[in-house]
Amino acid sequence: MKPKTDVIVGAGPTGLVLALWLHHQGVNVHILTRQTVRPKLGLTEDLLALGYKLPASNLWVGEEHKAHIPLRDFGLELTPYPFMLSTPQDDLERMIEKRLNDVSIHVARGSKLQGFVGHGSSITATLFREIDESSTTHEASYIVGCDGAHSAVRRGIGAKFEGETYIYIADVEGKGDEHFNRKGHMVFTNDTFTQVVPYNEAGHARLSLSIRSHSMMLDPKSRNNRAFLVGDAAHIHSPVGGQGMNTGIMDSVNLAWKLATVLKPNMTKEAKYQLDSSLSRIGEGTVQPDDRLPWVEINEVDNFSTLREVCWQLHIYGESVPELEKWAREMNAKVFTFDWHDQYGKVGLVKNAVYLLRPDQYIAGIFEGPSTKAGLDEYFATRGFCPHAGRD
Ligand SMILES: Cc1cc2nc3c(=O)[nH]c(=O)nc-3n(C[C@H](O)[C@H](O)[C@H](O)COP(=O)(O)OP(=O)(O)OC[C@H]3O[C@@H](n4cnc5c(N)ncnc54)[C@H](O)[C@@H]3O)c2cc1C
């Protein structure tokens, strides 16, 4: 019998996001962390309320001030959020976990993965509870290691993890006109890189000093058909660059739609190996399959507003195509039509083209003209899956 759940090991930011996105795509999850205490989506508004908008950052070479970089609106016209937002990670984790609790998913605290074995079409994970020293087993279709730098899932796969990092980090509080002025500072010397990133108005900042820093990366040859690694379990970046968590969250959003797809009933074996090959027809615009959809807001019509729903979508910029409404209903996808405006053309979108968007908000394919419906059908037929969702 097919297991009822999928196991996520680790409740850091990548595990929490993966659980939330899988839930919204119809997958049952079991999420656990060895931590016993809780550390101190429509996630955007909560995140904005939580974060601190950095007004600017300063660039120094040694003691010489080289540049002042305004950050309040440096992404204007590219994103609805054109600023840099600084947020403590534990606040972010608490916020996402609350969203999971709202949909009745709870992190099994104090439960540690000891190991797992694969049986072809499923895995059995052995979990250990420190509080009563009990061991239990859990059957799942897949196991995802979101369990950080010392990942037990990575050990289970036997993957190599190479690289090294020398970094010092401190959360500090201070005052000062030159370096403690609620703006960011980046200081370069021949051998070091130091960064001050404020995260609130009260004079608190993260101070990081990098002496030598190489990212640690998973050997790409490491593979296991039933186990996946995301976040720090798969790659560790220097914290100075501020990319680790962001990259891990993107891993999760991407893995979620693929896992949700392969877990659907009647999925052919071949399809499971074809999820990475996207592309179908390329229109005349500069936007191509595998790109992120460009953001445009015209007269308060925001084309990103539809992306709050985690599902396959069609975006049409121009005239609506009634036959696609029926196709989308049958496929459990959504169609959104935006009246044409030159502004769409300026960002590379093509009038009356149909953009097929994946649940991770990237463009799967672009279709035009009378063969659009046939092209959409072909897209899914050649990959052996369709967007029908639902827990089985
Ligand atoms: C000081 C510092 C500053 C940083 N600043 C930034 C920044 O500004 N921006 C940014 O994007 N990134 C930053 N990072 C990186 C970021 O913190 C990590 O990339 C992020 O935490 C990775 O998330 P994760 O969910 O993959 O792993 P983790 O956060 O490490 O979470 C791992 C989870 O797995 C659980 N676990 C581990 N082993 C087991 C087991 N055997 N069984 C059960 N559960 C287990 C743990 O309890 C935990 O819940 C910083 C890192 C550091 C150290």
UniProtKB/TrEMBL annotation:
Keywords annotated in UniProt: FAD, Flavoprotein, Oxidoreductase
A Pfam match: FAD_binding_3
GO MF, one example: oxidoreductase activity, acting on paired donors, with incorporation or reduction of molecular oxygen, NAD(P)H as one donor, and incorporation of one atom of oxygen
Record InterPro entries: FAD-bd, FAD/NAD-bd_sf, RIFMO-like
UniProt keyword Transmembrane present: no
Domain FAD-binding: from-to ranges: 7-36, 41-172, 220-264
Cofactor(s) of this protein: FAD
Protein name from the UniProt record: FAD-binding domain-containing protein
